[in-house]
TrEMBL record:
It comes from Hylemonella gracilis. Gene3D superfamilies: Homeodomain-like (1.10.10.60). GO terms for molecular function: DNA-binding transcription factor activity; sequence-specific DNA binding. This is Helix-turn-helix domain-containing protein. Keywords: DNA-binding, Transcription, Transcription regulation. It holds the Pfam family HTH_18. It comes from the Bacteria. Residues 268-373 form the HTH araC/xylS-type domain.
Length: 382
C-alpha cells in the first residue's frame, strides 16, 4: 500500500493479492452460484448497503501520525479513531513518542480497517455508544503480538491469528503489552441479526481460535472479498455478503432454519480454500485430485462434488491456472532467461506438446507468438 502521512487521502483503487487473479480469491464458480442462489430461500431478508456506503464506489484511506508533531499525535489519534473506527476513549499510559496508522477500504457492504499503533488502553464506554451507536458487528483478526479484550465480564486473550466476533454497542476495553496490530471487518448488523437468535443481552463476544477450521473458512472468504470485490457483479457481491454472514452466523450458533444456508456457505468457502491451494501448487507437475483431497481430509468423490459448485472441474481449473501462470511468465522481465518450453514446465505442464496445444486452444496463438507481443486471436473463454 502507498503510505500517506498526516492527512486523509481518498481515492479509487484495488488492493492487490499475492494470489494471481482468476486462480485464487473469488473464482468463476461464484457466477454459477449466484444464479443458483436466487430463490434458494436463505431464511433471511435481503438488505441494501447503507446510504453512506454506496454500492459501486470504492474508497481507500490511509491516516498516519508520522508527520504530525509529537505533542499532537495522540490527540489526533483519538479523533482519527472516532472517525474511522468507532467512538472510543483511548488513554495513554506513558508519555513519549507515539506512532499509529489506520488504513480503511470500503465499497458497498465491504468495510475493512487495518490498525497498527503503539500500545495504550482503549475503552468504548456507554457514553461513547450513546453518542455514536454502531450499525454493524465486527470481526477482529489479530495480527502480530498479543492483546486482551474485556466485555460483559468476559476477558479474551488473543494471539496472532485469533479472531473475535463482537458487538460494538456493548461497552468494552482492550489493551496490549506492546503494539496493536489487527484487521477489523464490519458486517451489517441487521443482516447478521436476522440469522441469529439473540437474547436480551445481545451478541456475546465470541472468540475463535486460530486452529479452528471455521476460522480458516471465514478468513479465506474475507480475504477473497477484499482482494476481488472490484470484479464482482452486483449479484455476485450480494452472494458474497450472504455467504459471509451465513459463515459468521454458523460459528456463533445459527438457529435450525439457518442450518442449510450455513452448510451451503461453508461449502462455497471450502471450495475457495481448495482452489487457492490448487493455484499455489499448480507448478507441481504431479499434482493430482488425490493429493489435494488428502490435504483437506476429503474423499476423492467429495472433492469432485465440491468442484461441481463451479463452472470448472478440478482438472479444468488446474489447466486454466497453469495457462494463466504461463501467459504471465511469457511476458515477465524476470523470465526472459527461460525458453517457452521451460516456462511451460515451470507452470506445471509435464509435456511441451500439451502446453503448446492447450495454450493455442485457449488464446488462439502459440506461446512464442504471445511472447513476441502479438495479441490473442480471440478473447479467452471465461
Amino acid at each position: 500500500m502507498d503510505v500517506k502521512h498526516g492527512f486523509l487521502k481518498c481515492r479509487n483503487r484495488s488492493i492487490r493479492s499475492g494470489t494471481p487473479r482468476g486462480t485464487g480469491g473469488y473464482p468463476r464458480w461464484i457466477i454459477r452460484a449466484a444464479r443458483d442462489a436466487h430463490g434458494a430461500g436463505d431464511g433471511a431478508p435481503r438488505t441494501r448497503a447503507s446510504p453512506d456506503r454506496p454500492r459501486g464506489q470504492a474508497m481507500f484511506m490511509r491516516w498516519s501520525t508520522d508527520e504530525l508533531p509529537q505533542t499532537q499525535r495522540f490527540e489526533q489519534w483519538r479523533e482519527a479513531c472516532r472517525q474511522h473506527v468507532y467512538a472510543l476513549t483511548p488513554e495513554r499510559r506513558a508519555r513519549g513518542a507515539f506512532q499509529g496508522s489506520i488504513s480503511r477500504h470500503t465499497r458497498g457492504g465491504l468495510d475493512v480497517t487495518d490498525i497498527r499503533c503503539d500500545g495504550h488502553l482503549v475503552r468504548r464506554s456507554q457514553r461513547d455508544i450513546d453518542e455514536r451507536p454502531g450499525d454493524t458487528y465486527y470481526i477482529y483478526l489479530q495480527g502480530q503480538g498479543r492483546v486482551w479484550i474485556e466485555q460483559q465480564g468476559q476477558r479474551c486473550v488473543l494471539e496472532s491469528g485469533d479472531m473475535v466476533i463482537a458487538d460494538p454497542n456493548i461497552p468494552f476495553s482492550t489493551d496490549t503489552d506492546r503494539v496493536f496490530d489487527f484487521r477489523l471487518w464490519r458486517v451489517e448488523r441487521r443482516r447478521l441479526q436476522s440469522r441469529l437468535r439473540l437474547g436480551s443481552a445481545g451478541l456475546a463476544m465470541h472468540r475463535i481460535d486460530r486452529s479452528c477450521a471455521e476460522r480458516d473458512l471465514i478468513t479465506c472468504w474475507l480475504d477473497g472479498l477484499l482482494h476481488h470485490h472490484a470484479g464482482l457483479s452486483a449479484a455476485n457481491s450480494e452472494l458474497a455478503q450472504e455467504t459471509l454472514h451465513a459463515l459468521v452466523a454458523g460459528v456463533i450458533g445459527a438457529p435450525a432454519p439457518m442450518q442449510e444456508p450455513v452448510r451451503r456457505a461453508r461449502r462455497r468457502a471450502l471450495l475457495l480454500r481448495v482452489q487457492g491451494t490448487v493455484a499455489q501448487r499448480a507448478g507441481e507437475m504431479d499434482l493430482t485430485p488425490e493429493r489435494i483431497a488428502s490435504a483437506f481430509g476429503l474423499s476423492l468423490r467429495a472433492l469432485h462434488q465440491l468442484f461441481a459448485l463451479s463452472d470448472l472441474s478440478f482438472n479444468e481449473f488446474l489447466a486454466r491456472t497453469r495457462l494463466e501462470r504461463a501467459q504471465a511468465m511469457l511476458r515477465s522481465a524476470s523470465c526472459l532467461h527461460l525458453s517457452t518450453a521451460e516456462i511451460g514446465f515451470e507452470a506445471g505442464f509435464g509435456e511441451v506438446s500439451t502446453f503448446y496445444r492447450r495454450f493455442k486452444q485457449r488464446y488462439g496463438i502459440t506461446p512464442g507468438e504471445w511472447r513476441a507481443g502479438l495479441a490473442p486471436a480471440r478473447e479467452p473463454a471465461r
